[in-house]
Amino acid sequence: MEHPILFISIILEKLGLPVPHGPVGHTLLEQLCEPYMTYTWLVMAFLFIVAKLTLSDLEMVPGKGQNFWEMVIGGMDDFFVENMGRKLADQFFPMLATFALYIAVANLIGLIPGFMSPTASLNTTLALTIIVWLTHHFIGIREHGLSYYKHFMGPMWWLVPLMLPIELISNLARLVSLSVRLFGNIYAKETLLAILFMLAGAFFAPLPIMMLGVLVSLVQAMVFVLLSVVYFGQAQDHAH
Amino acid sequence: MSDYKKEMMFLLGTYGHIGITFVAAIFIGLGAGILLDQKVFDGRTAPWFTFIGLAFGIAAGFKSLLDILWRSSKNMEDKSDEEK
């Protein structure tokens, strides 16, 4: 398949930096110049700059920019409190809200020609998922101490040999399903857009998929955060 | 966001997740079984751990499915309690 035109990669190549053409670069510099890395930094810079521009002077009577952020942050805060309680929501709000904003922007950026979604690479989504997975075990151990193992033992003692492998497998399945679902949805969207653009770009064939892509991008970002919140809440709850 | 839209997003999130969790659980179980058979026991126990792993994987898939169902039915009960 023809490689899509990624303007950051072209700029980097003009600057003489090695941009890998295969899926994975060999040297450290090549790995840093991967499209998903450069576009991750672009999304980070975008979020920093937009937040700085709109929130640099907070006022009692909010203007347009501050109003928007208050709505987004307030909505997310309500949602977290509803699903995992005030204490956990306060502790993990910065992490989860950053994930939500980052994933939403990273998904949506792929709809613009010349950009690529960083989340269309398994490396990015797996990194996010591993952070969430380790954090939910951390919450469980902090809350219950060593008796956290009871979460994996099932309801009755004579069911332990049966329930332990099942619980372990379904816990590991979270790691796979959370990362692969986000990656798969966004990669499918990107590939479909590229193919439709090549086949019938002059007749606006990718347009319906782009509209669908906006929906998928937002829903996937929300689902990722929703499931993280649910896992955090479950790790803090008592074992059945 | 209206309540209807919120509910819709919530349902999309929880139920859209079922399919891939199920598949992931089965593949992890199967993979663990094959790993035990081929790497740990060098193929001496050949098909057995694969089958046991597959069975555990399928069981884990159903377990995560039931978890999601129970959780959502619990949420529904909580909501109806609040309304009363």
Coarse morphology of chain B: elongated
Summarize model confidence as the mean pLDDT of chain B.
Answer: 80
SSE succession of chain B: HHH
Structural class of chain B: mainly alpha
Report the biggest beta sheet of chain B as strand number plus sense, adding barrel if it closes: none
Specify the helix fraction band of chain A.
over 70%
Strand percentage of chain B: under 5%
Low-pLDDT ranges of chain B: none
What would you call the quaternary organization?
Answer: heterodimer
* Backbone CA Rg of chain A: 21 Å
Identify low-pLDDT runs of chain A: none
Chain-averaged pLDDT of chain A = 84
Our estimate of the beta-strand percent of chain A is under 5%
List the helices and strands of chain A in order: HHHHHHH
Radius of gyration of chain B: 19 Å
Helix content of chain B: over 70%
Shape of chain A: globular
Which two chains share the most extensive interface? A-B, 21 and 26 residues
Structural class estimated from helices and strands of chain A = mainly alpha
The span between the termini of chain B is 24 Å
Descriptive tags:
heterodimer; A: 240 residues; mainly alpha; 7 helices; 72% helix; globular; B: 84 residues; 0% strand
Task: Describe the model.
- The complex is a heterodimer of chains A (240) and B (84).
- Chain A is built from 7 helices and no strands.
- Chain A is globular, with a radius of gyration of 21 Å.
- Chain A is mostly helical and 240 residues long.
- Chain A has helices spanning 7-14, 28-32, 35-55, 64-109, 122-144, 160-200, 207-236.
- Chain B has 84 residues and is mainly α.
- Chain B has a domain at 20-74.
- In chain B, helix 2 (18-40) packs antiparallel against helix 3 (46-83).
- The two termini of chain B are 24 Å apart.
- The model of chain B has no long low-confidence stretch (mean pLDDT 80).
- Chains A and B meet through helix 6 and helix 7 of A and helix 1, helix 2 and helix 3 of B.
